[in-house]
Every structure is written in structure tokens, then in C-alpha cells.
Amino acid sequence: MSSIQVAGDVPARLEDGFTRVAREAGLPGAFPRAVLDEAEWVAEVPRLPGKDLTDLPFVTVDPPGSMDLDQALHLERLRGGFRVWYAVADVGAFVRPGGAVDREARERGETVYLPTGSVPLHPRVLSEGAASLLPGAARPAAVWRIDLDAEGRLVGADVQRALVRSRERLDYAYVQAAVDTGTADATLGLLAEIGALRVRLERERGGVTLPTPEQEVVFAGGGYRLAYRLPLPAEAWNAQISLLTGMAAAAMMLDAEIGVLRVLPPPRQDDLDKVRRVAAALDVPWPDGASYGQVVHGLDPKVPRQAAFLQESRVLLRGAGYVAFDGAPPALADHAAVGAPYAHVTAPLRRLVDRYATEVCLAVAAGEPVPVEVEKALEELPALMTASGRRAGTVERACVDLVEAFALRDRLGESFDATVIDVTARGDGGQVQLADPAVIARCDGALPLGERVTVRLTRADPATREVRFTLA
């Protein structure tokens, strides 16, 4: 794995920089005393459901060290298909509408992650304690039961409140190794099988999952480093179960004519035409009749021209947002990257909108009216989530920029091998991606898109978090 390493004797300066990033972004600080007091109280007296599903052997699959465990799953093979049991932390069992925790969560919108830790949506006594689906503990949950046919297509879905108990906390590497070595138990083996079926269906309906490496800040060995990380297949399988649940939730809300959806408009024709021209220029195959999603599924980000195409084509995925409705379904109900209507319901410990969407689905599934306080809140959610999402994205990019600038600050004038992944319309520069160290930054000069080049570092300023190169 290519990475950029920051020596272990300087993390204090970087941590000061992360603190400045949080301050500039307006991230909230410590929870007010009233919020903490209420959280500690409700953690002891949640509204427990009457249904008991603690006999189902749920497991969680998350990044190593995660404590805010939103989802647990158990998978079964049926005659002619599959059953997905998907338990989602029931935050509504703890958070009182209009209470101090609820009001504070509406201010925060979502958990924001920094290399030094997180700024959580809810006090940790809830998000990493009483409401988290930690192994061995009985927890209230919204439990989805989703039936699929033998091809992985949705047959039916239901959701109800129930008590669950996760048997084990697993991480992606463990799941991948178990599947690869043939030692996976029934649920993990079915996760690979169902996940692969759902990936194939995603391609059929024109959904898009970009096979691009993530650039992330990692703390290891007493210092920080930037690394490119390609997600494991196990992460894609797990994500498909979450997507499946979100699609089932969206269908349920659309049928009931009330709810909140995550939407993405289809790409504009001029953007699509531009991306097709880029594909032709970079020799990226785009067969007649193939959708954008079908094209990108077969690409390899380690191939320079394909990496450049993946970067350039991101323009087709811009404009995601939320839409609330109470009555006729919205004009735009689909999420273009999912290839179907979709809703966020699987991360309520970390994202405000999921709690409200889940409450709508629980009411609809039970044949009951949506609670008045939930119905009233729907209209405000799109603006709240747009603002919090923008803030979280700004923080993530600023932290990466800071580590890049800090690690390269003493290497001005050095040359590096890079791939050109973006060029400006004026042709006077663009973005380059270095293989080692793991940096993506602005570069000046007449850059050949999709080609390997040698670049020279001209600027690396931790104060402004700016890194800049020029063609060597």
C-alpha cells in the first residue's frame, strides 16, 4: 500500500491543525450538560419492544475498533431464495422528541470523523454504549426482514421493533479471510453469495459503484500517514445489504406517500456527452447500449487512463440530496447511482435522517399513522442534512490536505512520478495522483490526461493546507 508517513515525533502539531480544521468548519464542541444528563438517564430507561428476537444469531461487520455499531445481520437460505434479517439500532427507543438530545442532534446532523477522533451526533453513552449493537448485550432495534428470490431480487419486506443480541463483532478483513479460506459460517458465506447477486443486479439496473481507491488519514506507529485503500469485496457485500434495506424502505415510504428519500438526478446530457468523449480519448471501452454504471464496473483504477476516466466521470454523480414528501410522491424519487428509489435508514447512530425515516417505516409497516412529531420534522430534514453533509465533507478534505502539506513540507523541489487524473478547461493545469506518497494535488502546466508524468513539488504549506506541483 502506498502511503505518506508523518514521523512520530510531530503529531502534536498536526493535532493542533486538526483542531483548527474543526474550529474553522464550525463543528460543535462538548455536549451541553443538559444533553449529557438526559442521555445518561434515557440510557438506563429505553422504551423496550415487546418482540424478542434475541435467539437470532446476529453479527456486526464494521471497521476495526468501531463502537457506534448501527447494524447487525443474520442471513438464511430459503427454498428458492434467501431471507435477510437486518437489525438497525433503535435510536427512537432512547431519544425523546423535543428533548435535549433530540434538539442537539438536529443541530449536529451527523457524526463527523477526524483523524484524532469523532464529533458524534449523540452522546457516547448512547452512540457507543446503550444504543450501539455491541456483542453480548440485548438492544432495542428496528429489525428488517427482507425476502429475496434465488437471483437476489426483492420479494417482500417488513420491519418491526424487537429486542436483539449480537453474537460477535467482526471486521471486514476477518469476513474476507473467512470467505477466501472456506471457513465462513452460514451467515458469512451467504453474505458473499447474496452480496455478489446484488452487485450483479446493481449493474443490470444501471447503478454505479466507483472502483476508486480511498485516500484516508491513518494513525499508526505514533504518527499519521495517508494511504490509498481499495475496499475489500466483503465491504461491497456488506454495503449491498445496506443498499437493499434502503431500497426496501424507500419503496415502503413511496407506497405510503410519506417519508424522506436520498435522491440523485440523472446526469445532464451535455455532461454525459463530455464523459463519453473523455472515454474515447482515453481508450476506455463504452459499448453501445451500456450504461455509465456498466462501464465503470469493469475498470481498474491501477491503470492510469482508467483512473483518469473515473476521476473525470465523477461529474455524473453530482447533485445528491434529500427530498421529503407528505402526499404525492416527489417528481424526483430515484437515486441515479443506486438505479432505484433509496432512503437512508441504516445509520441512525451517526446520521439524523435515518431515525426519522425509520420511524416512518415502522409506522407504515404496523399500519399505524406516522407520529405527528415525525411528520412535522420531515420538511426540515433535507436542509439540515445538506448543511451537515457539506460540513463533514469539508472537514474530511481539509484533514487530508493538512497531512499532505505537513508531510511534504521539507521536500520542495523534489520530483515524483504521477498520473494526470484531471485537466482544467483552459488546459493550464489539473490534478495529479502520486502513487507514492499517496497524494492527490493541483499541478500546473499543459497536462496530458490519463498519462504518467514526472512532477516537481513547488508548494507544501501546512498553514494554508496547500500542496502544488508543476511538470518537471
UniProtKB/TrEMBL annotation:
Xref: InterPro entries: NA-bd_OB-fold, RNase_II/R, RNase_II_C_S1, RNR_Ribonuclease
Pfam families (UniProt xref): RNase_II_C_S1, RNB
Molecular functions per Gene Ontology: RNA binding; RNA nuclease activity
GO biological process: mRNA catabolic process
Transmembrane segments: none
Domain RNB: 50-367
Recorded GO CC terms: cytosol
Protein name: VacB/RNase II family 3'-5' exoribonuclease
